[in-house]
Amino acid sequence: MSKLDRETLIMCKNRIMQGQSISSIAREIGVDRKDLKSKILEILSDEEKNEFNEKLKHNFRRNRKSARNIKKENREEKYKMAVQTLVRLGITKEDIETISRVLSTNRHTTMAKDTFAIKLVEILEFIKERNQGIEVNDEGYITSKDVINMILKDPRFMTNDVKRKLKPMCDILDNWSSNVNKYQINSYIKQYPEIFKNSIKKLKMHLIIGDNFLVKFDEKYIPLSEYIITENPFLISENSSKFFRRVCKLKNSTKSGIIEEKDLNGSFEETEEIKEKYELPEYEDDESFRRDVENVINRTDREDKSEKGEEI
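The chain above was modelled as a monomer; its predicted structure follows.
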């Protein structure tokens, strides 16, 4: 018996008239939807054709609306589950409303409420991991309220992906210097969530550059990279090339080669000569960038000593 004999076509037509979609029936009997429709129309009178076509339109609209409703219901269910998790993690519904309101005021941070709730759960779970081994009363412990304040201070913090941005950047900060521990990094990101506005590449470039300089800070001398991590993350927001030229110039303007903290926060006027002399190498990978930066610094050190008549 043919898949589309008259008896089968009548049965299909009746099921469609009862509200079933033609697509689901076509899949069920293993034929193309268009072929099924064409064959059914061939056995109908003109009046029946009109009724059949109207029913097809009605079924399509109903099924399409149903799909939208299902999607909406799924989003609502995800949102409810996320909110329950947030409450368990110490976030109140008032906090959720406050954050949602702040995010909605900026087109860069606006997001669907279920997306917002799910992302917030991911961030809180990540922070929970970072708190492991740290006492609640310790300065390095990040509370749920701290996370709320971080978001309110910098709403774009919420747009960061945990796996692709927050965790990799924290790993870099955690492991950059043996003199800086996770407790300090936690305290640091609580105060400066703006650090995550920068790219991972830019963070590494600034820290690699900073490894080559010493800063006098509170009567002690620390690598510029450590100073950035513990004291002044806003230096990372500066253009990498300009940052490099500025610290090179500051170092070579002192006999000791040590940069004073106050000079790091001062103004800096660039000239074409400075731009040409302290040209930042292109970044390809950490190792080659570190080597190329050291070569530029050593070369310009020799040139400066030669100009001053000092021994090289």
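The chain has a mean pLDDT of 87.
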